[in-house]
Every structure is written in structure tokens, then in C-alpha cells.
Write a structure and sequence with these properties.
- It is a single chain.
- This protein has about 110 residues and is an alpha+beta fold.
- The chain has one domain (about 1-100).
- It has helices at about 15-25, 25-30, 75-90, 95, and strands spanning about 1-5, 10, 35-40, 40-50, 55-60, 70, 75, 100.
- Strands 1, 2, 3, 4, 5, 6, 7 and 8 form an 8-stranded antiparallel β-sheet that branches.
- A hairpin with a 5-residue loop joins strand 5 (about 55-60) and strand 6.
- The chain is globular.
- The model has no long low-confidence stretch (mean pLDDT about 90).
Length: about 110
């Protein structure tokens, strides 16, 4: 796994503590996104919500563009941390914790 912070910093093999620290400090640091990458086109990503203060938009992708999904609404940081840590562990809690909708490619 690799943690990507706004395309400026990457951390290979991040610990759960480091993932949580980066996510909780994302707004204060002015980061545009944080993603946890399992491969080239396999990731979960958080972006600050433009409509709500300490809420985030979530996305994940598994390979091709037709396997690109987003959360139906913005999520609080505690839930974002939970999703990222589940993804890092390799379990499927993150899949059911959020209602995912396919991103329209048109």
C-alpha cells in the first residue's frame, strides 16, 4: 500500500497511525486529496467537501473507469478514517460502511 498526499508526498507501507494522522490533519495542511493506493488504478480517496467544513467526499476505484465509485454524500472524518483503515487491513468493512454509487463517465 502507498499513501499519496496531494500528489506531493507518498508514503510506502503506511502504518494505521500514520494514515489516521494524515487524514485528521488534511484540512489544516491544505491538502487537496489523500489516497491509499493498492495498485495503479486501485485506491480509496478522500477529498475535502466544498460544501461542508470537516466533511470529506470519498471515492474508490478498482481498475477500469467502469469500476469507479463515490459515496452518495460527504462523510465525517471519523468515518473516513474507518474506511481507510479497513482498506489498509484488506477487509471488506469499507465496502459496506458507505453506500457507493458508480461515477458517471459521460
Amino acid at each position: 500500500m502507498r499513501l499519496d498526499i496531494s500528489g506531493n508526498t507518498t508514503i510506502d507501507g503506511p502504518t494505521p497511525v500514520r494514515v489516521e494522522q494524515v487524514l485528521r490533519g488534511m484540512l489544516a495542511a491544505g491538502e487537496s486529496y489523500v489516497s491509499l493506493d493498492a495498485g495503479e488504478q486501485d485506491y480509496v480517496m478522500a477529498l475535502p467537501s466544498e460544501f461542508q467544513g470537516d466533511f470529506y467526499d470519498l471515492e474508490f476505484r478498482e481498475g477500469s473507469a467502469d469500476r469507479h465509485y463515490e459515496a452518495g454524500d460527504s462523510r465525517p472524518v471519523d468515518e473516513v478514517v474507518e474506511v481507510f483503515l479497513s482498506y489498509l487491513r484488506g477487509d471488506n468493512v469499507w465496502r459496506t460502511r458507505v453506500e457507493w454509487k458508480r461515477v458517471d463517465q459521460s
